[in-house]
Design goal:
By secondary structure, the chain is an alpha/beta fold. The chain is built from 8 helices and 22 strands. The strands form 7 sheets. The protein has an 8-stranded mixed β-sheet, with helices on both faces. Strand 10, helix 4 and strand 11 form a beta-alpha-beta unit. The longest helix is centred in the C-terminal third of the chain and has 20 residues.
Length: 530
C-alpha cells in the first residue's frame, strides 16, 4: 500500500535543521592535544565505511535486564554477534576528524573554531542543506525511540519530498552563496537574513509544490524567532486546501532535550490525522496547534510559544489523538482574498487624486508567479512615552518617517524596473488605540497623502482590537501585532496598490481626503477578515 506523501520545506536560520559543533572526540586526539573532560567520549551519528562484525555484551541495554534473565533465550554465549553494514544507516560513533593546520597530523576540531576569525570561523557549516538527514536520524532512533520502544517514527507513516525553499546551509563548492542561496545564523559574523525579494521565492516554491497531485500536506521548517511571520505569510498567499504545518526548535538537532525532532513527528501526525484540512497554515509547537494569525514566540525555551491578540489562537493539541478545539474564523489560504491565485497580474490604482488615468505595477510573471520586484517595502515605526523633543505638532521632528517617505517617492520615480514601487508603514502605538505622539501622527498624515498606506496597531502583544476613528487617516490593524500587520499590509498592497496622493501632502483638500478615506475602506475590509 502506498504511503501518503508530505513536502518538507527548509526555511532560513533553522535551529530545527542545525546541529551542535562537530568536536573531535578524545579517541581522535593525539598526545599533547587538549583532552575533553568527563568519563565518556561523546558520540556523533556517522556511517560505517565497510561492514564490520561486533559483539554486544548481553544485558547491557538496561540495568534491570539481568534481573529478568530468566525470560531471555540463552544460547550459551555472553554476547550477541551482529554484522553491521553502511546501508544500515548512521551509528553513534566517536568523531575522529581533525582540522588541517599545516602540520603533519592536523589539529582537533574545537567548539571555539566558530568564533575564530583566523581560521575562517572553522570553515564548516553546522546547518543541514535540507531536512533529509534530520528525518533519517529520527527514523534511525538516534534522537530516541517512540513510546513503544521502536524506531522509524517517520518512515512508517509517510514518504517525504525535501525542498530547499530558503535553506540554512549551502553547497559552496557548487557556487552557492550565503545571503543569496542559503541563510545561516552562525558563525555569527557570517550570518545572513532573508531579503524582501525572498518572500516571492518562498511563495512561488510553496505554491508550485502544493499544486502537485498526491500530496497529503506540507511542513515548513524555520528559525524559532521568525517562523511566526512566514507562517502568517503562507496563510495569506498560498492557495491550497492542504494542511500546511510550520515548526521550529529552541535547541539544535542532536542537542540534549532537542524539541525540534518531536515537533516534526507531531507535525506529521497532525497532517495525517486529517483534522486540520482546510484550516490553512498552522504552527505545531510543543504539542499545541496554533493559528497562523496568532502564532508567536515569547522566549528561547521549549514550551514558550503563545497566542497573541488576547482572544484565542490555540486551535488544538497533538494528543494523542490529534484534537481540534477551535477553527479559524478569518480568511486564509484557499479563502484568502490576497492569495496568489486572486492577486492580479498588474495592480492598477490612482497615483494622485484628480489624475485622468491610472498607474500599474507588475505583480506576477508570465507563469503566474509572484515577482520579487513586486514585494512592497513596509517599515515599522514605534511610539514610546517621553520621546518627543517638545510638545510641538511639527512633523519635521520625525526624521525617520520623513526619510521613509522620501525614499519611497524616490523609488517610485526611479525608472529602473527593479526599483520597488509599493511602500507602507506600520505604527506600533499605544494600546489599544495604536496612536503615536502628536508629531508622529502629523508625519504619518504626510505619509498617507504621499501614497504610503499606514496601519495602526497596539503595543507589543495586543490584547484586543484597535478601535477605528471617524477622522483617522490610517488602517486599523485589529488585534494583530506589528509584524503580522506589516505582512498583511504587504499582501494587501499587492492587490490594492498605494493610497492616492495629494498634490500637496502637507495641505490636502477635502476632495483628496475623501479619495483617501475611500481607499482606506478597501484596505480595512481586508484587515477585518484576514
Amino acid at each position: 500500500m502506498d504511503k501518503p506523501k508530505i513536502a518538507v520545506f527548509s526555511g532560513p536560520t533553522s535551529t530545527i535543521a542545525n546541529s551542535p559543533n562537530l568536536v573531535t572526540s578524545n579517541k581522535g586526539r593525539a598526545d599533547g592535544d587538549r583532552n575533553l573532560p568527563g568519563r565518556f567520549d561523546h558520540l556523533v551519528a556517522q556511517s560505517l565505511y565497510e561492514p564490520v562484525t561486533v559483539r554486544i555484551k548481553k544485558f547491557s541495554a538496561h540495568p534491570m535486564e539481568e534481573d529478568a534473565k530468566g525470560v531471555y533465550f540463552d544460547d550459551g554465549k555472553d554476547y550477541y554477534e551482529v554484522e553491521l553494514h553502511p546501508e544500515d544507516g548512521p551509528f553513534l560513533l566517536p568523531y575522529m576528524a581533525r582540522r588541517k593546520d599545516g602540520s603533519g597530523t592536523g589539529a582537533p576540531f574545537e567548539a571555539g573554531d566558530m568564533t575564530n576569525a583566523a581560521i575562517g570561523y572553522g570553515g564548516r557549516q553546522s546547518f543541514y542543506p535540507d531536512a533529509s538527514r534530520v528525518f533519517a536520524d529520527i527514523d534511525r532512533s538516534i534522537a530516541g525511540r517512540d513510546e513503544h520502544g521502536e524506531g522509524n517514527l517517520l518512515d512508517r507513516k509517510a514518504d517525504f519530498e525535501f525542498i530547499r525553499a530558503l535553506p540554512p546551509a549551502g553547497y559552496t563548492e557548487l557556487g552557492e552563496k550565503a545571503g543569496e542561496d542559503y541563510f545561516p545564523y552562525q558563525p555569527f559574523p557570517m550570518s545572513r537574513r532573508p531579503r524582501y525579494s525572498d518572500l516571492a521565492r518562498v511563495t512561488n516554491t510553496v505554491q508550485r509544490t502544493l499544486a502537485q497531485s498526491g500530496l497529503a500536506g506540507a511542513i515548513w521548517l524555520e528559525g524559532s524567532p521568525t517562523v511566526e511571520e512566514t507562517t502568517y505569510w503562507l496563510s495569506l498567499l498560498i492557495d491550497t486546501q492542504l494542511p500546511l504545518t510550520c515548526c521550529a526548535s529552541q535547541r539544535t538537532h542532536g542537542q540534549l532535550a532537542n524539541d525540534g525532532d518531536r515537533n516534526i513527528v507531531d507535525a506529521v501526525e497532525v497532517i495525517l490525522s486529517g483534522q486540520v484540512n482546510g484550516m490553512g497554515a498552522v504552527g505545531v509547537q510543543d504539542e499545541r496547534i496554533y493559528a497562523a494569525r496568532e502564532f508567536k514566540k515569547a522566549d528561547d525555551r521549549p514550551g514558550n510559544y503563545k497566542a497573541t491578540g488576547g482572544h484565542g489562537g490555540i486551535l488544538g493539541t497533538v494528543g494523542p489523538p490529534v484534537t481540534i478545539w477551535y477553527r479559524p474564523n478569518y480568511k486564509h489560504t484557499a479563502s484568502s482574498d490576497v492569495n496568489l491565485t486572486r492577486l492580479p497580474a498588474d495592480v492598477i490604482f490612482t497615483d494622485t487624486t484628480g489624475d485622468s488615468g491610472s498607474v500599474g505595477v507588475r505583480i506576477k510573471d508570465s507563469g503566474g508567479g509572484l515577482l520579487p520586484t513586486a514585494i512592497p517595502r513596509v517599515n515599522i515605526v514605534k511610539q514610546a512615552s517621553y520621546m518627543g523633543e517638545d510638545d510641538s505638532l511639527d512633523p519635521d521632528q520625525e526624521v525617520d518617517i520623513l526619510a521613509r517617505i522620501a525614499k519611497a517617492l524616490a523609488d517610485q520615480r526611479n525608472p529602473d524596473e527593479k526599483s520597488p514601487k509599493l511602500h507602507g508603514l506600520v505604527l506600533e502605538g499605544t494600546s489599544p488605540y495604536g496612536l503615536g505622539s502628536t508629531s508622529q501622527m502629523a508625519a504619518l498624515a504626510i505619509a498617507v497623502y504621499s501614497g504610503l498606506p499606514v496601519v495602526r496597531v497596539g503595543r507589543s502583544d495586543p490584547g484586543g482590537r484597535v478601535p477605528g476613528f471617524m477622522h483617522d487617516l490610517s488602517i486599523a490593524g485589529s488585534n494583530l501585532d506589528a509584524n503580522k500587520a506589516r505582512l498583511l499590509l504587504m499582501a494587501s498592497m499587492l492587490k490594492l496598490g498605494r493610497f492616492p496622493k495629494a498634490k500637496d501632502p502637507r495641505n490636502p483638500t477635502s476632495k483628496e481626503k475623501d479619495a483617501l478615506l475611500a481607499k482606506i475602506a478597501e484596505f480595512q475590509e481586508i484587515f477585518e477578515s484576514h
